[in-house]
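Fold it.
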Amino acid sequence: MVSRTAIHIEVKLVGADDATPDVTNISSDFIVLAKFTAVATGTMTQFRIRMKGSGNVQVGIYSDNAGAADALLNSVGSTAVVSGVNIITFPSTSIISGTDYWLAYNCDTSDTIGVIANGLGMTEYKALTYGTAFPNPAGAGYTTDSWTNLEAGWG
C-alpha cells in the first residue's frame, strides 16, 4: 500500500512544516520524483523546497499513470537556493483534488536537499546530469524507495 502525503493548496509543505531534515544524503546529478495526492483543486504557482545547504536546483511536476510518473506538466530550470525553505516561482499549473502527481527535483550539489526518512511515501530516482532537461515522459529505469525525501509544495 502506498501512503499518500497531503498537500494544502496554499502554504502546506509536503511533510511536516517543522520537520528537521535528517542525515540521509542525496547526491547531485539525480532526478528524484516524490509521489503525492492533491487534497484540493487549484493552481500551482510556487514550488517550495527545504534545503540543507546551498546550490542550484531544478524542479518540476509530473502526472501519474497507474502509479508511475508520466507526462511532465511543468518545470523550472536552474534556480539558486540556500539553507531553509526556498520559494521558487512556478508556471501556473492546474492541480485536481484526489489526483496523484510526482514532484521532481535535481540539484548540482550533493547533500543540499533536506530529507525526512519516515517511510511514508514513494520516491523514485535515477542518474540525470544537472542542467539536463527533465525527461518527458518520465520514462523507465528508476530505482524505487519508500521514504519521503522531498519537502515541497506550492502556493
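The radius of gyration is 14 Å.
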